[in-house]
Design a protein that fits this description.
Blueprint (H helix, E strand, L loop, with lengths): L6 E4 H9 L8 H29 L11 E2 L1 H9 L3 H19 L6 E3 L6 E8 L2 E5 L8 H14 L3 E5 L5 H13 L4 E3 L3 H10 L9 E3 L4 H10 L4 E2 L7 E6 L6 H11 L6 E7 L4 H13 L4 H11 E6 L2 H11 L3 E5 L15 E4 L5 H6 L25 E8 L6 H17 L3 H11 L1
Parallel strand pairs: 1-12, 5-6, 5-8, 6-7, 8-9, 10-11, 10-13, 11-12, 13-14
Antiparallel strand pairs: 2-7, 3-4, 4-15
Helix pairs in contact: 1-12, 2-7, 2-8, 3-6, 4-5, 5-6, 7-8, 9-10, 14-15
Length: about 425
């Protein structure tokens, strides 16, 4: 295998590159292809879903029942797992549930001189659709990281969709569905699965909101159905940015780069070094670890295509580059790092300390690993219990407590309604004034 050296750029060059922003629009061909698939499923239901799956994923489904699984199927597959796998899944389940139960969601209720009740209430979203990706790898962790949060939130119905894969992989996904308390599962992937969740079929119930990452076709499908159904985010390729001031012993940090790169050839890996190091030591460690990886072809392509090494003078410069990238995962390995800097740093999830790693966040730390990518952490957050709830504002006037204050709120509202030219609005208020 040819040796891999990360592309080396300076702080100034990095600023110029990342200031240009992210041009990640999907190609017209992908948009058109996804549009046709969604239209077909929307119009023809189960027939289209089976046809698209057989065509794209090379399945051989004759009817919808061939790809449909129930809670009894989940339990049966769970019982076939070895003790170690069962124990690990249950351990991770407990950590995810404990973390999200610790998030306090409080309804708001207060009174003032006019309203007997003014506030907000929360209630769980009724029907959730979950997508667990396949392709280059199998992700039971994606089921745990979404379905269990939905259960903590109190969602009534959770349906799982996952693409066709090996029999062993399918068994693991179905066993994980048991641990995650899924209601129904369907062995469909791609844009056709998103369409089925968004619009339903003769046998599949329409979801109220869709969660879970996928490939470019899945992401584009989520983009196109958004509005008809809620979505978590427009997820892109996996990303990691590492800020380090280490001078030697790079084995752990190199393994973190490789962990993200093995997700797929579009994975983005950025290493920011504070101060000078013998960079060849880092590259040597990188190449030695890649040689030992079963997924070295994917890793090699990802690192050659999307990896960057940036050398900066200090932590301030490192944070400046980070805040232009706004990565999905940020690892900080710096002596005497002060936690009061955290609110000045933009990232989907932050992992501090050499003993920590984004990989712990992928599995057992507790927070969901469904995290915004493509700089979306500027305005959105990792999936959490709040995403499975809707918030409704409530007000009540059951009796007039203070007539003067009541007339005052009416008069000001009437004035603004007439200012906008909405005289029907004003009249509705004037009738109360009388």
């Amino acid at each position: 295998m040819e040796k891999i050296n990360l592309k080396k750029i300076s702080f100034i060059s990095a600023k110029k590159i990342f200031l240009k922003g992210n041009n990640s629009n999907q190609s017209p061909l992908i948009k058109k292809t996804v549009q046709k698939i969604i239209s077909d499923v929307k119009k023809n239901g189960n027939k289209a879903l089976i046809g698209q799956s057989n065509k794209i994923d090379k399945t051989n489904f004759k009817s919808i029942s061939d790809a449909t699984y129930t809670q009894s199927d989940f339990k049966k597959h769970f019982e076939t797992l070895d003790k170690r796998t069962k124990k690990s899944l249950e351990y991770i389940k407990k950590r995810i549930i404990n973390f999200h139960k610790a998030i306090k969601i409080n309804d708001l209720k207060f009174t003032d001189d006019i309203f007997n009740f003014l506030g907000q209430i929360h209630k769980p979203i009724e029907k959730i659709g979950l997508y667990a990706p396949g392709g280059k790898a199998v992700y039971p962790s994606s089921i745990l990281m979404t379905a269990l949060v939905a259960r903590v939130a109190g969602c009534n119905e959770v349906s799982l969709f996952f693409p066709s894969s090996s029999e062993e992989a399918k068994k693991l996904m179905l066993a994980t569905a048991h641990v995650s308390e899924i209601n129904h599962a369907y062995n469909f992937g791609g844009a056709q699965a998103i369409a089925a969740m968004a619009y339903g079929t003769e046998t599949i119930t329409k979801s109220d909101k869709i969660f879970g990452p996928g490939n470019v076709f899945v992401s584009e499908a989520k983009r196109q159905v958004f509005g008809d159904v809620g979505i978590d985010s427009f997820a892109g390729p996996s990303e990691v940015l590492i800020i380090s001031d280490k001078q030697q012993n790079f084995a752990g940090l190199v393994s973190d780069l490789i962990a993200q790169a093995e997700h797929g050839e579009d994975s983005k890996c950025i290493f920011i070094q504070i101060g000078k190091i013998n960079i060849q030591n880092l590259f040597k460690e990188l190449n030695e670890q890649i040689k030992l990886s079963p997924r070295k072809k994917i890793i090699k392509k990802a690192l050659e295509k999307n990896a960057i090494f940036i050398q900066v003078k200090n932590l301030e410069e490192a944070i400046e580059i980070n805040n232009l990238v706004v990565p999905e995962h940020l690892q900080i390995i710096c002596k005497n790092f002060k936690n009061n800097l955290l609110k000045k740093i933009s990232a989907g999830a932050i992992f501090i300390g050499e003993k920590n790693t984004a990989v712990l966040g992928d599995y057992a730390a507790g927070p969901s690993h469904v995290i915004p990518t493509n700089t979306a952490a500027r305005f959105s957050s990792p999936v959490s219990i709040e995403d499975f709830l809707v918030r409704t504002s409530v007000s009540a006037i059951e009796s007039i407590k203070d007539k003067k204050k009541y007339n005052e709120i009416l008069d000001n509202s009437i004035f603004l309604a007439e200012l906008e030219g909405l005289y029907g609005h004003a009249n509705a208020l004037k009738l109360r004034r009388k």
